[in-house]
Structure formats: C-alpha cells, structure tokens
Amino acid sequence: MRELVYYVAVSLDGYIAGPHGEFDAFLVEGDHMAGITERFADTIPTDYAVALGIDQSGGDFDTVLMGANTYAVGLPEAPSPYRHLDQYVFTHRPPEPVDGVTFTDRDPAELVQELKSVDGKDIWLCGGGSLATQLIGEIDRLVLKRQPLLFGDGIPLFSPAMYKPERFELVDSRNYETGVSFMEYVRA
User: Fold this and answer.
1) What does each C-alpha distance from 145 to 27, 76, 80, 91, 104 come to in angstroms?
2) Which residues form the Bacterial bifunctional deaminase-reductase C-terminal domain (predicted)?
C-alpha cells in the first residue's frame, strides 16, 4: 500500500521556513546533498535535476502534495516544479490551469485516502506545516532533514494548534559532516 511521506528540511528548533516563508538559510551544499540525490532524487525540482544530470526515474514517489504557499515559492519561473510527478496543490483560490498540476480545495485527508487506495509509488508531502497538520493522521513516514540552524521563529513543522500525540519509531538516521542529519520515522 502507498505511504504518505512527509519529507522536509527542518531547523533545530522545528521550523520548515522563516516567518515569511524564507528557506534560503538551509544548507544546499555539502556531503548531505549526495544523500538526497542517492535516495530522494525525485524530490528535486525537475528543471534542476535535468540541469544537473540527475536521474529521477527510480525514485520512491510518483505524487507530490503541497500547500499554496509552498507551491508559490517557484512562481512565476517554475509553474510546474515537479513535472516528473503527479502534482496536487491545496488552495481555496486556484490560479489559471497549469499543465501537470491539479489545484484542489478538497479535504486533504480524503484525497490522500483516495490516492492511497490506488496502485502507485509513495506520496510525498512537500509542505507546508498547515497542510501537514491537516494530514497528521494520514502520515505514515517522516523523513526530516535536520539542519544545524536555529530560526527562532517561522513556519513550524506542524501547526502549534495541534496537540494530539502521535507515536513514531526511528527506523534510520544518517549524520553528515555539514551537521545535517536525516532522521526517518514510521508510524508506531
């Protein structure tokens, strides 16, 4: 059965972006990047992967979910950032249609349940924190790219309005010289 995987970079203090969506402080150079291209090449935007000669055909994912703010990061230059995946963007104000992107205002949990019920590869929850909070009950696996940074404020991994303890078990961890750690958890 397909899994919903929340794969995301996070600061030491639990933020996936700064207060205004900034993410440029996250380290994008160093030995941890080999870990990304080795196992998660399909999470690299299509145009970057092509430019770098990265093969995305053998990845774990065939679908990516994101909120409107996460999607807007690449606009207007990259209106279809993950063309190698089925892309779903949750928004109440859908923009003009874009090839390869499905804009929806459906209940995220219902859509994920529907996607899980059909054959395919895993589903990548790209961001953001509000969408992740709405999908907490559907998340099967967390892959956190823990960055050696403190933000002090920003967009949290999950909305602070959520307090419903959910147990996950550590199944893998990798530490890199850059100070980045990949921590992988599955639902207990």
Assistant:
1) 10, 27, 24, 26, 28
2) 4-180
Q: With respect to CATH, is domain 4-187 assigned 3.20.20.80?
A: no
CB 114 within 8 A of CB 86: no
Locus of tokens 């933000």: 151
List all residues 6 or more positions away from 114 whose beta carbon is below 8 Å from its beta carbon.
none
- Token representation of residue 64: 């990516």
| 3-state helix vs strand vs coil in the chain, percent to 5 | 20, 30, 45
Binned average pLDDT, 10 residues per bin, the chain of 188 residues:
96 96 93 93 94 92 95 87 96 88 96 98 94 95 98 92 84 97 97
Query: The pTM is what?
Result: 0.95
